[in-house]
Each structure stands twice: as C-alpha cells, then as structure tokens.
User: What shape does this take?
Amino acid sequence: MIIDYTNRELIKDICLNEGIFIGCSYDYTEKELSLAIRQTISNSQTIMVDKYFTFSFLNVIYLDVQGCEFGEESNQIACIYLDEAETKLKALKSELEQNSFIGFLLDKDIDFFTVGLEMTSGDNITVICESIDYMENDLMKLREERRID
Amino acid sequence: MNDIQDIYKMLDWDSTEEVRAEGFRLAREIRDLSLLIMPPAPVWEECAEVLCEKTDAELEPHLYSFLEWLYDLNWPGASRILDRLKMIPGKKLKGPFIECINYIYDSNNDEYLIWLDYLSELLDNKQLEAELPKEIKEKLTEKLQEYYKTCDKHYVFWRENRYLLEKLQSLPREDNMIINYANRELIDDIYLHDGYFVGFCYDYTRKRLYLEVRQNINVAYHGQIIDKFFILKFHKILYFNVKGCEFWGSSEDISCIFLLEKTQLEDLKSEAKRICESYRNAMPDKNIDFLTVGIEMISGDYITIMCESLDYLEVDLMKLREEQEADSPEVE
Assistant: This one.
C-alpha cells in the first residue's frame, strides 16, 4: 500500500503498539529509509497478534532519531502518528528561504508530510517524506493458510 | 514438559537474566529443532544461538530451512546461522544449497537475487565450493552479475571485496582509531572530501550507526591519486538527524566531516526532564561525555550525530593493491 500526502490519514489506522523496532537503513542515493517491525502480542496462553510490517519511506528529506531512552530501556513502539503540526518541515522551508538555497527537492512540486514513531522508551523518530510503501503481513493468517494448503 | 510458547517467552529479551538462562537450558533440550528455526516469536537470535551449538548431524535434516533463514541477513540470527553453515561439511550442505540455487534460478524472481547474494557468502566454505558442480557455479555467477548491474557501485564494491574488508575490520585496532570526547579533535584530521556516501544502517537496540565511504579521486594527467575506503561506526548514539533536501542540487559526495562544538545535549536533557521528572537514568543524564559529529555533503545536506565514541577505519586501497602485487607478482 502506498501512503502519500493525499491519503496520509491512513497512518492513523496503523497499529504498531508493542511492535519491536531494532533499527533502520537509510539509502542516501535513493533517499529511502527502510525498516521492518515485528509485532507479537500474547497472553500467557496464546499468541494473539503476530504481524510483520515493512516500511519504505520514499523521498525522505528529513530524518531524526532520538536514542535517549528517556523513560526506560525498550525497543518497543508505542505508536506511529501523523505529525500535523509539521514543525520540522516548516523549519526546513524557512532554512531554505533564509539561506537562499536552491532546495532541489523542496522546491519541486511535492507535498511532503511528517510521520513520527514514538517508542515506549520515550524516544521519537521523525521522518519527512513524499510517500510510504507500507506492507502488513499477518503471520498467523499466513501460517493458517499454509496449514490448510 | 514446558510448552514451547513458554520457552519462547522465557528467551525473550524482556525476561530477567535468570529466566532467560532457564529458557536457554530448556531450549537446548528441545529435540524437534524445527521449533527453533525462525520461530513465531521475537527470539530468533536466541534460537539461532541454541541451534549453532548443535552437531552437524543434528542440523543436517534442517539445512534447507537454514538457507531460507539467510533470505535476509538483517533478520535476527541470520549472521550467526551463516557462520555456522560455513562450518558444515561441503558434502552435507551441497544438496540443499544446489536445491536453493536451482529454485532461485528457475523462479526468475528478482526479489530472490539478494537472497542469492547472501547465499554466495557460503562459498567461503571451501569444502562446499569444491563440491559444487561447474553448472551450479555458472548459474550463481550469471545471476549475481545480473543482480550487481542493478545495484549501486558502492554495494558492488563491498560485495566483491568483502573478504578483504571484513578481515581488515577484525584486526586489532590502534587506540587512536577510537575517537571519543577526550581525543575528539582527531575528527578534524579525517579527510573525506569527495568520498561517496550511499547511506547507513542504524541499530536502535545497541544505539549504533554504521556507515561506509569510498573515496576515489582521479585527476587529469595523473590518473587515480586517492582510492580509500572508510568505515565509521558510531557508538551509543543519543541523537542523529539527516537533512536530505539537496539544498544545492543532487550529489552523493561528501564535502567534509567535522566536530560540532555546539550540541543539542542541553535540549535533550530538558526533554528528558520534561518527559520523566523523577527519572534520572535517561542516557543524557548518565555521566557520559558525548561528542557531536557533522558530515556535510556537496549537495548542502548534512548529517549530525551525537554519540559517545566513533570507531574509525581508513583503508588505503592503492597501498593495499601495491602490497598485494608485491606479495604475488605473478597474480594479475
């Protein structure tokens, strides 16, 4: 599924709570940030959710990652959200104007949007991009289908 | 008898050390090893550790599944499994390996090519290489060449020279290759100008960032004057950001690496205080002297990294090639 500025509200429907984030890779040439998240939620008896998410953030013009573990040491995600205040995007645009930069990417007629990942540790990851290529795999369902096959 | 789900739970990183140790003990007793292969729980690394302790005979029935684990070397446990497979006798590994190569070759699916690339690392296992029929090696080479054409030049360089570069990385390091707050001025001596930057990998769990730079400078009438390869590993990263707006235009070349004296540490400390007033164990509050490194690109983009230390390796490829030629003059 591709999420861009026009359907960005879909981000609010993605539930990544308790998903494990171990890191990401960033391709500067392609301006692409890739990350994968495994979400396993279980009670003492059974696994209730077992999903695997992949995200490719495309045309990334800004990224910041905190690793401060403000609250506690944890690599679990609290949530993914749409940053509607767009504070950092505004700051980038203003930096561009103040320094009379050409702003190769920002000047193109692209609607960028800001996505945040909040970690249980209190850390935040902010990405400003043009679109997200997002895939959600329900591993329990896949296993069930394979069993039936 | 413990339920397998209980064992997975015990192995989980979130469990206490004692519980994890008990989890490992129980996992080692599991007879059906398939339960430990890419299990339906976030304990792949732990299961890989247990599996790697098994004998070749115990692992033999599962070799194909292990090769599937190598589909993505970023998957937890995959590197460990790869290292273990390199020690499996070639005669045993040959069958599943050929099956995998044929499957990838026949499927004609481009998404499998990266898997093939990872599988090719098993040729480090000289016994396996000797066992493989010529036809399989040709299939492997053909597909890899096809794949490399689609990759960027840095990746291809890395894959083709990985034996040498991995060997260099494992050599004992001089103290001055570790740059921390005390000797941070050394950053100003690193010359990365015109180096080609393709990206980085960030490990949130260990708070590490890894990047590589190839610096290949050619001058008219003199030809190649610099050919270097740099590996930079940033440790205990508190914060980093990347601006990729291409302020001046598109370019992957680095302008310079520098030390930033003005840092955002105080901002992060206030943030820590705001988030958790009573909590005093957040990274910015620990008694660590962080340093901030900036990398400026020709495009006008820049990367800022605040970390505890930086492990830095500079390889002069021209010198290495000369040494190699001197050692074996008959080899082209």
User: Anything to note?
Assistant: The mean pLDDT of chain B is 84. Strands of chain B lie at 178-180, 195-203, 208-219, 223-235, 239-243, 254-260, 291-297, 302-307, 309-316. Chain B touches chain A through 48 residues (CB under 8 Å).
